[in-house]
Specification:
One of its GO terms (cellular component) is plasma membrane. The chain is α/β, with parallel strands linked by helices. It contains 16 helices and 54 strands. The N terminus and C terminus are likely disordered.
Length: about 1100
Amino acid sequence: MINLLLWHLASDKTFKFQSRAQLLPDDEVSALNSIAQKLEVMTAAYFTDTYCNETAPSYNLGIYCDCSYKDKNDTVCHIREISLSNKGLTGVVPEEVANLTFLEKLDLSYNKLQGSIPVALGNLSSLYSLDLSNNQLTGSIPPSLGNLKPKVINKTRFGGYNRKASAYAGCGPEPWQNAATLSVGKITWRSHSQHRTLFQERSRLYALSLFHSVRVSLSVHSFIILKNHHVRVSVRFFNWSTLIIYLLFFSDLSVNQLDGSIPPALGNLPLDKGWTLAPDFCTNSYIDLSNNQLSGNIPATFGNLTFLSLLYLHNNLLNGFVPPTLGDMASLSYLKLSENNLSGTLPPTLGNLKYLSSLLLQSNYFTGNLSENFANLTNLDTFSISGNYLSGPFPAFIKNWAKITTLLLSGNNFEGIIPLEIFNLSYLDSLIISDVRNSFFRFPSHAELRANMTYLDLSFNNLTGGIPDSWRNLNLTYMSFAQNMLNGTIPNWIHRQSAWTMIDLSYNNFSNLNFKAESMNDMNLFACCNATNAPNNDRTDLNLIMEDKCPGGKPVYHSLFINCGGEEIDIDGNHYYSDNKTAEFYVSAEGNWAYSTSGSFLSENLNSSDYIRQVKCGISVSEAPLYEKARLSPASLKYYGLCLREGKYNVTLHFAEILFGDDEDYSSSMKRVFDVYLQGERRLTNFNIKEMANGTNKVAIVENLTAVVNNSILEIHLYWAGKGSYSDQPGFNGPLISAISVIPDFKLGDDKLSRLQIALITVASIVLAVLLLLALAWAMGWLGKEELHEIKVGQEKPVTLKQLKDATRRFSKDMEIGKGNFGTVYRAELPNHIVAVKRYFTLSNEGINKLKSEFYALESLRHENLVRLFDVYVGKGLYLMVYEYMENRSLADALFDPKPKVTLNWQARFNICLGIASGLKYLHEHPRLKMVHRGIKAANILLDATLKAKISDFGNSVLYAEDDQENQFKVIKTEASHGYMAPEYPMYGTISHKYDVYGYGVVILEIVTGKKNAGHNFNQEQLEFLVDEVCLADTKGKLLEMVDKSLTSYDAKEAITMLKLAVKCTNISPSVRPTMSDIVSVLTGEKSIDDISVPHNSNDGEES
């Protein structure tokens, strides 16, 4: 009962000890009345020298006395605390506050105060707690605030105190025994003010302990950093009179409109004379300058604040480097520098902050590697480095952060392997990793994931393989693997998981989907599956949509207007379609456009309206209705124009920043940054609407771009790569767009001629005159007609043979990129395009006809692992094949060149093997054109910019026909590649798809071993030594000894699988070799080697 009474008295600020003789000095009375008038607390003089003796109701103003002082005659009172938070106060911060020389705490937060911070506040020698946050203060921070000093409550060391148990430096629960606990309840606060509530409650409870010898402890539990925080407060009562050492300093100027630089003097806050920080002191001290417009550098003097436990500088305009001296802030538990313009490398000294539990550095311009010293931050609970420009190897030391709960690593330039151990960290709750380059990370089938994880986002990486079956019992609320290269079958348990988990598997290469997707409202499966294997479902494949909406692929539209997020409307004679749906994927009723969105807003309270937002105040332009609403997306937003005629289009994108308000503190310094792609080409990088408009909600931004449509589809992609703001409030990050207009840049046949059309006719006339001159030159014998022959090059318009020759510099040796037995390959640099041109050596008439017929058969083939052929030219003494250009040349160059252009790590090699197998499977099992390539070798496997393998050089390929008896193929005798030649060919002259399987097996051996196959030497009757060597290693159980010694790491299980596959593929008997379909199944994990050990029943060209 006594304890409860003590709690009530201490929690009621009207409780005080006083006598009738206790008076308030006249100068403080005068200051109080001036303060009250300027803050409009009252209109007439109210305070008198007897204020501290007034009754409890009058004392509830929030102005508190301390009557423990004595003069010569009697006890004297002084104003110790002013707490006027959230009182609706206006005006300015009164300078008269500086006359309250005994003031220790000043809290004017959450009001509407304007003006600057009085310089005289720095003269208050007793002031240790200053909270002016959440106002509208302007101007710079007075350097005089550097004169304020922390308060040491008690210097007596508490017996049994253990600093190492601290959540803040030195402030942790002690091992008290037999203690009665009174639960006070739970306090909830938003992230921008969490420290204020926490420390105010600590101070209040501490006051209770001062009066009644009561020990107080505080336990803290933080959830995901971007969500609400919760504090559980417990009061423990003891009969101890000694107190823990408390060092207190609170300065909160956050959420204002302060500008200028941070005064270096703030880093020189003085301690009491002679006071040093003992190993077992407790400091609850913070500086919060966040959410302002502060610029300049972070003062290096902050390193002197060794007692500070929290430093918040986020959401400002700070620039320059992070000073290494911050690593000297030995007591720091929370450091937040996010959403500034900081740059340079992160100082390794930050790894010295052993008490650091939260480190937030996202949305800056940091570069370089993440120092290995960060491995020492073993107390980290939350770490975010998203939206920077860090590079180098993925920081593997993170796997040793045993206490981490929230890990945000998106939007950087890390590369390499993601350590598997990260996914099973004991306390990990939320994990976001994206944009890791060249990782080609593949989850083993047995991969474990922490059972209680709630948020997992691994989108926009190079993930391969399938989703581990061991994840079937997770309790995730969100899971995304969007925009990867995952393959195999989507497991059936995903269907059940979606009942409680939002799942995004869009834009992958899964081979199969075994459940109906129409009913999956919380699952995004758009473009999830390989087009050749995708189910007949309009939510998974854009090509199927085209077939449905554009029968026969016939384009019918030549323009498109969309009011993104808004209603149907007519503007300037153009009809804008309504775009007000909230689904992740939508196809318009007319079938001429669609959109797809992926990603998740980092919020617990997400609803469908967060994808469409309405403007708060209008924009004064003629097209104003287009900017009243906008569509948003968490990460990726794609619009598709469907059934469009081929040709060049003018694409106009309309933007207006309608979420960030100029008068709203929480958004005044935020920025939205994203990239814009047209037809897969990035056209706008780090596009910032607010910056372009010189402020928010003021100016509409219109971007005029052009795009060429070749396949009746126009793709507009807005992608957030983690740059800019990173907020838990939906809509403050990710792309935003207000409207789209697409009009043709070609003539539609109208009779009425515009100025533009007249100009175009003029230009066309000039071109025609040039063509007539060329025709005359031909007639006079000056120019051969072959030079005017048109050749397709994968663009809207073909080029002439002359232009193609000129693009190769007339087949200059400088433009050579490859040479084979049948010809030389050249790089052709056209004005807006690069293609590869293979010039064949002299061909016979039979060879010419064969080249033509094979091209016309091949040009209809479309697969991501086949090089696309554009055209063939056969002229007098000139034989050309034109196909797409591969940036990284051939696999042979990458493996065997002494100075290769690219280096292939293990995951890249594995994916190349899988890509070749997928391409061959497509050739062998095409429903109409079954084909044997007959030239599978490393030199004929080309690599694009992402190291995707593409099969090229179909000069030796043959179409085979199936007779009545299954798998009996035509016999064709011709030249073949030594070293990759199946043994049945020189013996019997027969060709089947098992010929390609043999060549594929040799290529696998070269990829895994890094050795070049020696080939046949018929004079000495030598066999391929590499095949024999691997077979011998297999019989001795030493396959791993064959793995390329230059690889720094590799997956041993995958290596054995691939080498065993190679042994089967190179078996002398074609009937024992697996099919390419079986090989793909093994590589994707759907089958094991043992599953394909039984020979298929076929003759396959082998004769008895």
